[in-house]
Amino acid sequence: MIQAVLSLAIIGGILGAILGISDMYLKVENDPRVDQVMGMLPNANCGGCGFPGCAGFASALVEGEVSKVGTCVVCSADKKTEIAEYLNSTPGPDGTTVKVTA
Ligand code: SF4
User: For domain 32-89, is the CATH number 1.10.15.40?
Assistant: First the structure.
């Protein structure tokens, strides 16, 4: 019984250490602008913009794949302007901004 508990504790410790080390070296840096834009979008996830949801549209805007916030058919005019101003003035991790229109 004690051998089984010790074996599981050792295996758990080893796997935990592997996960901890992997987290340090394999971490994926997310662009914080995607979350900011997500917070400004209506989050209806209707697909009207041609993306499967608001997260996909936010990523496309931040990555420069889409240059017009108005592609979102649900967003109000004020929010479109707010998102465009935010993206035009906020640099990403690489120091560059994307140019989008409302
Ligand atoms: S059209 Fe707007 S609300 Fe609908 S999924 Fe696209 S970004 Fe979200």
Answer: yes
